[in-house]
Each structure stands twice: as structure tokens, then as C-alpha cells.
């Protein structure tokens, strides 16, 4: 062995550190912390860490709260499965509050009694919640967000920005390579763009799709029209049919002046503008014939949470005027409470953009059918093979 | 690659004469073997069983339906095919880049070699997600490279971002250190004497490479190939962030099947198929180690 460097020593260190990285992160034992799990993007976890938790100190100075990033919805589902498995035993599910989760994502969890009934628990501020946003008593809508089209205002004048699906289609074809949306499973901005295409192909009637009316037959009847619409757009998209791999990547392409228009989450784009990632004059427009979907993020609390009382206290604090106003100013989101319960000055300022309604698309089985259907029918493209 | 295989197994004193020492040895290996059985071997057989035993109304029954579905699904086959071709291209590029690098590091005696070695090992310390975003900023559209070209009045590059070349560039960059290390180790077996003797006899560099060096590092190259194939085949982050939406590489495809399509049996089937292909390359590695050991006896 006449090699110049101590290869074996190096390999030993390298493999040891690799092994350390590969070790599963051992579950944290109950340490008095309230564990808040989020599957949202980093702007949301930052909001919790930097705004909600410091403010919560004034309500409960002794509470120790930890925000844990579960990665995505699938990560939260795994945590909910763990809580479900721990139900009825003494085991600590090690999660006290889900930042954005709905009970229907874990089948049978409501019947099993996994979730705290907020109405029965008498959570403070519950009466302020926007009635339009309420779904069940087991989830607490605390922030809303909507998908908009963001565009480079130095290239598109505000009056030329598309206001209907047809105008948008015409704009995309007139400006080939200047539009991109992300893969529907990798982020809600592209996901809701795809869902808007489904609405477009089905008479723009969001009522046609509910959590319960999914069946393979009904999906086979309603979805192919949307694939046709989206395949029609593909040749005029960025690189003749490329799709970015997440909400942030779409914003990055807009910021690098690679594309001129892309669907974005209202909260993310406002934050990107305020942080200087996107220029001040970034244009935002919503389709007027039927808005792109949006939705409310819903807090859920498992009944077997070790720190359930503190978690409920935290949930009530999130619904307070203080936090709800900051959801508008700091996060660029919509409040979960009725607009009567936010700072009056804000209510005046945003009077014009307060949406009358935010169309939503049900999750559940529709998610898998839409996402996989898109990958099989739209992603391969017709021209790209 | 010769002494990696033999480390820790060479016996100095004939057979394990004293039982005490044999027992200590067994105890020492028992922990890793038990860990291997628990964390690797058991899950493999568990996974295979789960794909072959389908739940029916009357219990479970033997069924190969997921395999039939996989191999009759053009979309899944396109993904498998893309993964195979990306792996082949990466392995070829890695050998083409790392062999000259390793030859230089093995034979150069200058100070510059130390710097080159440091640079070659640098990618090892860069997490792939950081690399992915850095690549978007450099060779992505309107990225650093485009800015430089633009300043020089040259046309922009045809960006590899969101095409299969995106992950290929990232994976090659990421795998340079390990490949170079293993090749340098293999080249350690080539003695300076043999090289100098051939040079004295008038061998030109190419002839030297072909007749003296390559025959001695064939084994190392086989090991390098199997290692890179194993790591690239199962790559996730770089294809996820840099690659096209479709076809997908097996890593992102499996993850999506599992968490989005919510079809765990199909995801496990994809994993078993991936594993079976990787096992072939794993067998190359094991065989070359075994051959090495035979040769040393």
C-alpha cells in the first residue's frame, strides 16, 4: 500500500460518519415539551417559531413548545398513524398538535375517538371562527391561503394579465416557454392549478367534487377532460412541457426571470416579495370566472396527547386577534376567524381582496387519483415522448 | 482494493487454537451479524413476502399480480429504463473522469497533487440537497454560467435543469470522491518497480496503461462499478429536485407510489425489483472479494 494518504483511516472515518447519519433518529422521550408537527413549507414553521411561540409565552410562560417539521402530508399521516396506534394504551404518541391536518386523512380516526372535539372541549375563541371555513368539530381552521397567478409586471401590463381560464390559455400560447406550474403532488400551487383545470373541464362547478363522491368510475368520467386541457398547454409551457418540483422552485424560476407567469400560494408570494426574493412590482391576479382553489389549514389535537391541555391553550391562542392579524400581515394568509375578529385597520386595508369564497377541492381518494393520473397522462407529454 | 477485503480477517497463528480467542471473535462479529439480520435480511424477506402474498377476503393467498402489473405497465417500465440508462451513463462518466484523476494522484509526487486530492474529495462533504440547489443557481436557467456567458456576449447554455441530464451531472459530481478513492486504492497495488521497468523498456504511456496498469486494477474497477451503480440506482434527492417530472427515477417513483398513490404493496414491489437489480451488482462485489481472498491464501 503506497498510496499517498491514509486511505484506510479515511475510509474508517467516512464510514463511521455515514453510519451515524444513517442511524434512525430515536424517538424523543417525554420531556415536557409540547410537540407541534407541521408538514407545511418553511414560511409556516418560521411563523410558528418566530411569531406564535414567543407570543404564547404571555399566555403560558412555563410551556415549552417544540415545532417539528414532518416534511409533508405523508409525514403527518405517519404521525397520526402513530397516535392512532397509541390510542387506548399508555403509550405517548409524542405529538400534541398537528399544524395542518384533517381527520379524514386517517380513516376511522374520528370514530375511534382520536381527535379532540373542540366544541365539546370549550376552546376559547371557537365562536370567532369563520362559519364558511368550519368543516367538523374535530378540526380548527386557523389560516387560509389561495392560489393566484404571479407574473413579472415588467413584461405583462396589469390590464393584459389574464382574468379567465381562456384568457390565460391564450396568453400561454402567445408566450411559449414563459409559464410553468409545479407537479401536483409536490406542492399546492401546481396542485390547485391542475384542480382548476378539472373544474374547467367539468363546467366550473366545484360542487361536483366532494369527499364522498369519489369512485373510480366517476374519476374516469371527470378527469380525462382536464388531462386534455393540460396536454394542450404543455407544448407552450417552459421547455415545451417541464414541471418544477415544488412551490418554491416555481417562485425561483419567476425570480430568475426564466418564466413570466406561474401559479403561487398567496402567502408564499407575499412573503417572497417582502423578503426581496421577488421584486416589489410582481403582479398578482386571480381568475374571475372561477378562482384557483385554496383552502384552510386546520389544527387537530389527538385526545391521547401527553400535553393536551397546553395544546388546547395554544390552539385558542392561535385564534386570538393578535395571531390572526399577524397571519395577514406577516404571513400574507387569510384569517381563520371571521374578518370581524381581526384588527379593524387591517379589515379596512384589505377590504378589496377579502374573497367572498375560496373554492376548494376535496382531498381523500381524489388526491391519489388526480396526482397519479397527472403523472401518467400529462407529465410524459405528447411531444416529448 | 486488495486490503480492504482482507482487513481484520487475516489470521496470524494457524487455526484458532485456543477456544477462548475463537469465542471472542464470534462474540465480536455477533453484534454486526445480528444487526444485519434484523435491519437488512429480515426486511428483505418480509418485503418479498408482502409482495407475493395478497390479502383476499378469505385471508392471504399467493399472487404475483403486482409484478405482472409492473412489467405490463409502460409508465413503470419507462421509469425503470430511465433509471438503468442514467446509472449506465453516470458509471461511464465517472470512470472516464476518475480514472485519469486517480492515475494522477497515484503517480504525481508534486505539491499540486495534494490540492487536487483535496478538491476531488470536496464533494463528499456537500449534502446532496445543497448541491441540488447550488446546481440550479449555476447551470440552471439564467444561472451563474448564463450570467458569465452573457457578459462575454455568448449565447446561453441549454440548461439541463428538469431534464435527465440534471440528475446525471449532480450524481457524477457527488460520486467523484468515493470513485477516486477506490481507484487510487486499487492503483496502490501497481508497484512503482513494474511501471519503471516498463518505462525503461520504452513503453509509451498508453501502452503502460493498457498492459501494466489496467490488468492489475481490473478488480478495483469492478468494485468501483458495483459501488457507483448501487448508490446511483437508489438516488433520491438529485433526481427529485433536478430531474424531469416524467419519466421518474425509481427512488422518487417508489416514494410517490408509497405516499401519494398510497399503494404500499406496489411500492414494495418496485423496491424488490430495484433490489434484485442491485443485488446482481452486489454479487459482483462479493465475488471479487472472494476471489481476492482465494488468491491471498
Structure description:
The complex is a heterodimer of chains A (385) and B (297). Chain A is of the alpha/beta class. Chain A has 2 domains: 165 residues, 3-Layer(aba) Sandwich (D-Maltodextrin-Binding Protein, domain 2), CATH 3.40.190.10; 166 residues, Periplasmic binding protein-like II (D-Maltodextrin-Binding Protein, domain 2, 3-Layer(aba) Sandwich), CATH 3.40.190.10. Chain A contains 14 helices and 8 strands. In chain A, strands 4, 5, 6, 7 and 8 form a 5-stranded antiparallel sheet that branches. In chain A, strand 1, helix 2 and strand 2 form a beta-alpha-beta unit. Chain A is globular. Chain B is an all-alpha fold. Chain B has one domain: MetI-like fold (Orthogonal Bundle). Chain B has a two-stranded antiparallel ribbon with strand order 1-2. In chain B, strand 1 and strand 2 form a beta hairpin. In chain B, helix 4 packs parallel to helix 8 and helix 4 crosses helix 10. The longest helix of chain B is centred in the N-terminal third of the chain and has 34 residues. Chain B starts with a helix and ends with a helix.
Amino acid at each position: 500500500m503506497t498510496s499517498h494518504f491514509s486511505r484506510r483511516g479515511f475510509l474508517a472515518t467516512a464510514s463511521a460518519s455515514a453510519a451515524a447519519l444513517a442511524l434512525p433518529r430515536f424517538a424523543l422521550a417525554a420531556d415536557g415539551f409540547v410537540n407541534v408537527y407541521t408538514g407545511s413549507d418553511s414560511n409556516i414553521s418560521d411563523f410558528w417559531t418566530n411569531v406564535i411561540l414567543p407570543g404564547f409565552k404571555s399566555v403560558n410562560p412555563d410551556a415549552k413548545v417544540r415545532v417539528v417539521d414532518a416534511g409533508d402530508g405523508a409525514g403527518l399521516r405517519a404521525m397520526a398513524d402513530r397516535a392512532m396506534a397509541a390510542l387506548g394504551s399508555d403509550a405517548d404518541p409524542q405529538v400534541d398538535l398537528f399544524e395542518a391536518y384533517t381527520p379524514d386523512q386517517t380513516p376511522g380516526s374520528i370514530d375511534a375517538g382520536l381527535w379532540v372535539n373542540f366544541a365539546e372541549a370549550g376552546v376559547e375563541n371557537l365562536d370567532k371562527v369563520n362559519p364558511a371555513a368550519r368543516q367538523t368539530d374535530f378540526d380548527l381552521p386557523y389560516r387560509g391561503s389561495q392560489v393566484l397567478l404571479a407574473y413579472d409586471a415588467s413584461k405583462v401590463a396589469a390590464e393584459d394579465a389574464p382574468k379567465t381560464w381562456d384568457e390565460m390559455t391564450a396568453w400561454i400560447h402567445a408566450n411559449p416557454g414563459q409559464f410553468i406550474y409545479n407537479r401536483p403532488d409536490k406542492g399546492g400551487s401546481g396542485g390547485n392549478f391542475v384542480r382548476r383545470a378539472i373544474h374547467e373541464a367539468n363546467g366550473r362547478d366545484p360542487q361536483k367534487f366532494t369527499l364522498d363522491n369519489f369512485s373510480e368510475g366517476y374519476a374516469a368520467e371527470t378527469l380525462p377532460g382536464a388531462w386534455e386541457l393540460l396536454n394542450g398547454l404543455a407544448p407552450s409551457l417552459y421547455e415545451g412541457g417541464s414541471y418544477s418540483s415544488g412551490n418554491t422552485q416555481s417562485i425561483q424560476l419567476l425570480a430568475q426571470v426564466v418564466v413570466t407567469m406561474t401559479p403561487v400560494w398567496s402567502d408564499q408570494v407575499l412573503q417572497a416579495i417582502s423578503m426581496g426574493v421577488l421584486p416589489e412590482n410582481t403582479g398578482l391576479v386571480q381568475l374571475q370566472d372561477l378562482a384557483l382553489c385554496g383552502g384552510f389549514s386546520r389544527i387537530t389535537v389527538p385526545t391521547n396527547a401527553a400535553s393536551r391541555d397546553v395544546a388546547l391553550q395554544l390552539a385558542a391562542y392561535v385564534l386570538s386577534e393578535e395571531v390572526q392579524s399577524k397571519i395577514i400581515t406577516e404571513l400574507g394568509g387569510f384569517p381563520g376567524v371571521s374578518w370581524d375578529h381581526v384588527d379593524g385597520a387591517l379589515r379596512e386595508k384589505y377590504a378589496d381582496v377579502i374573497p367572498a369564497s375560496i373554492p376548494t377541492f376535496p382531498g381523500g381518494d381524489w388526491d391519489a387519483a388526480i396526482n397519479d393520473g397527472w403523472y401518467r397522462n400529462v407529465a410524459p407529454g405528447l411531444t416529448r415522448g | 482494493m486488495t486490503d480492504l477485503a482482507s482487513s481484520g480477517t487475516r489470521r496470524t497463528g494457524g487455526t484458532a487454537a485456543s477456544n477462548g480467542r475463537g469465542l471472542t471473535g464470534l462474540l465480536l462479529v455477533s453484534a454486526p451479524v445480528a444487526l444485519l439480520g434484523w435491519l437488512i435480511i429480515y426486511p428483505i424477506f418480509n418485503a418479498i413476502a408482502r409482495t407475493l402474498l395478497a390479502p383476499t377476503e378469505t385471508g392471504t393467498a399467493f399472487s404475483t399480480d403486482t409484478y405482472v402489473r409492473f412489467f405490463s405497465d409502460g409508465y413503470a417500465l419507462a421509469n425503470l429504463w430511465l433509471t438503468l440508462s442514467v446509472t449506465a451513463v453516470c458509471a461511464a462518466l465517472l470512470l472516464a473522469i476518475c480514472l485519469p484523476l486517480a492515475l494522477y494522484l497515484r503517480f504525481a509526487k508534486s505539491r499540486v497533487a495534494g490540492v487536487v486530492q483535496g478538491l476531488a474529495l470536496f464533494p463528499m462533504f456537500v449534502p446532496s440537497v445543497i448541491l441540488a440547489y447550488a446546481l440550479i443557481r449555476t447551470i440552471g436557467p439564467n444561472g451563474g454560467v448564463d450570467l458569465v456567458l452573457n457578459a462575454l456576449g455568448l449565447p446561453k447554455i441549454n440548461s439541463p435543469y428538469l431534464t435527465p441530464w440534471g440528475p446525471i451531472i449532480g450524481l457524477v459530481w457527488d460520486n467523484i470522491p468515493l470513485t477516486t478513492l477506490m481507484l487510487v486504492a486499487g492503483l496502490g497495488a501497481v508497484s512503482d518497480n513494474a511501471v519503471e521497468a516498463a518505462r525503461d523498456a520504452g513503453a509509451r504511456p498508453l501502452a503502460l496503461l493498457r498492459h501494466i496498469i489496467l490488468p492489475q486494477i481490473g478488480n478495483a474497477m469492478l468494485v468501483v462499478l458495483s459501488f457507483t451503480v448501487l448508490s446511483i440506482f437508489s438516488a433520491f434527492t438529485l433526481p427529485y429536485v433536478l430531474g424531469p417530472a416524467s419519466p421518474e427515477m425509481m427512488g422518487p417513483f417508489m416514494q410517490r407510489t408509497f405516499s401519494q398513490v398510497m399503494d404500499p404493496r406496489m411500492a414494495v414491489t418496485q423496491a424488490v425489483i430495484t433490489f434484485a437489480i442491485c443485488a446482481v451488482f452486489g454479487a459482483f462485489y462479493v465475488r471479487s472479494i472472494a476471489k481476492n481472498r482465494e488468491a491471498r491464501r
